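[job 0412] stage=complex_fold ligand=glutamine status=START
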Amino acid sequence: MALATNLGFPRIGPDRELKKAVEKFWAGKSDANELIESAAHIRRANWMRQKQLGLNHVPCGDFSLYDHVLDTIAMTGAVPPRFGWSGARVDLETYFAMARGRGTAAALEMTKWFDTNYHYIVPEFGRDTSFRLASEKIIEEFKEAKSLGISTRPVLLGPLSFLFLGKCSDDSDRFALLDSLLKVYEDVLDKLAAAGAEWIQIDEPILVLDLPESVRSLFERAYAKLSAVKIEILLAAYFDELRENLDLAFRLPVKAVHLDLVRAPGQLELALKSVPKEKILSLGVVDGRNVWRSDLDRILTALKTAAAALGKDRIFVAPSCALLHTPVDLELERDLDDELRSWLAFAVQKTREVVTLTRALNEGEHAVADALAANRAAAAARRVSRRIHNPTVKQRVEKITPEMLEREAPFSLRRRAQQSALNLPELPTTTIGSFPQTKEIRSARADFLAGRMKSAEYESMLKREMEQVVRFQEEIDLDVLVHGESERSDMVEYFGERLDGFAFTRNGWVQSYGSRCVRPPIIFGDVARPRPMTVDWTTFAQSLTKRPMKGMLTGPVTILQWSFVRDDQLRKITCEQIALAIRDEVLNLEAAGIGVIQIDEPAIREGLPLRRDRWNDYLTWAVDSFRLSAAGARSATQIHTHMCYSEFNDMLAAIARMDADVISIESSRSKMELLRAFRDYQYPNDVGPGVYDIHSPLVPSVEDMEELLRLALQVIPRERLWVNPDCGLKTRAWKEVRPALKNMVEAARRLRA
Ligand code: GLN
Ligand code: ZN
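[job 0412] stage=complex_fold status=DONE, emitting structure tokens
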């Protein structure tokens, strides 16, 4: 019989219990026992839930107090020396210190987990790293589940992915540490086997990347060692196809291999042909990265093909990846209407789909006829729903012409027109958009949304706030002003709420990092803009000053990237629809007299495919979408864009092709190193490298920023250099922002002199 399995369940709890428990502990309002008890409660509920839903393999070890890579650091005792840890076991205090820093010991870095919006803690290795078993969390969790009568399948991050995802703090080779690392893994596997575990899931997601041969060649050695333990190994790779690593995975002495058939359905055929006879395939058929209900009929066809080739006994039915990246339970959504709800599935519903599919395969479709019929009806309704399909929008997308991506003149001519329209000084100063979101603003917004504050009152509060922001900027003599974004709680949500085709959940949280969760909007239908979204606020702010007021928009790629996107059409098309809406907004702002407009694209890099040979295709449509949103502007209208907190060196050609008149880009932390790439590429347009690190509460001095600007001047010609902070100021306090921006303007002034 085929088995219904899961690769991991959301760990935050249906009501974000984890966040609350962890933050309470950090604030000193609870002790370790209370935290441990809350965590055990979440795990118990998750296991019971999955078991009741009918899964055969329920995962354990997928839970984490902060992050599963940090858990692996703890398990292997890879605590960097600055934390002064020497105990036998990594204690809670050391664990959280690595995540959040302690005194002078800086936190470990955090970065994005593959192409998701989840961030993991980056392991630090060095010549002196030695591994030893320093946390038995996974073994304890296995026993904990067993004591509840649930036999689970533990999940571990694999040794090669663990090393690959880390970095070396010296020039040593982290893969030289493999043998010492494997000893810990063998030890853990031994202990799990002794505790009664029959299976272990070992995640090696790096197998979907373009791996150097030197790393590929280590897999056989590693898995030869691990397979010596009496426990069956499921090797799991996800987020893309295995491609040249499929053969490698099949050669390894593991009992089962997991394939992501949502991202890469095409690899099934080859896998069925080449899988060795003794191996089981775990078929990742339910999308673990999105919120849509599956097309069960279509999946069942694929499962039957697999069953015909392998026999049912050699099949695990699974989600494409861990369900960490989906919200927990659709049942908790009170405000979604029934129609929209009928198209959605969160983690609980996806688990149910896995079970339904497995039963249909094992017992025949009649056994789950009702579930299949309901699924079919919802899919049929979705295909023709007028709420989703807007013929006007579809036609507009089809009529996009190459000319619509071109500004009316090249940069050199636009530049002249903008200079005479704006009359800015050399080294113009500006900010990235947001000003501090004070407690007053946030509590007024909460009151307004809860109906405790009238909209007139809320609006006049915002206007007072904007007026203050404008006066402050005039007082310190900034050149291009902003209105401060106090009306926005979030740069994507604000636009999503004003566009057709978007829905918002109440409880659709997914973990972003540690205790931080986000609630991405759901793009369910064709995107249209019923009316202008920012014109009133921007023109109000402009009416307060003679200086240019910069209109602030979020770019199409960033809106796409930070939302759950419909799965019934190409992402490219959805992005074009958003771009058309932003394009209309640009034209409305321009017609209302706004001469500078910024279209933020901080998330453009996040959309890059995991495989290099697909970068070009993505960058082509992503940059085209940006151009589509901007290119309607007249020459004299200055288009800015902004990017931050990413590696941009290897995509400068794409950035240049965006053809923004001005790009502001975070760079103060890397001390302008990024700019070298701009020079080498001979980036042609204006650049504003950030000179004020907005993640730090420190106020940079005039000299600090002058120094950074001098460095920038070595690479960017004076007439193309702007002066601005790294990013928006929304998380900072006024007491820091005031002196920091004053100093920034002073630094520009000194350099002009
Ligand atoms: N305009 C936005 C702000 O200033 C940009 C934020 C971002 O880059 N993430 O807040
Ligand atoms: Zn930014």
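The chain has 28 helices and 22 strands.
[job 0412] exit 0
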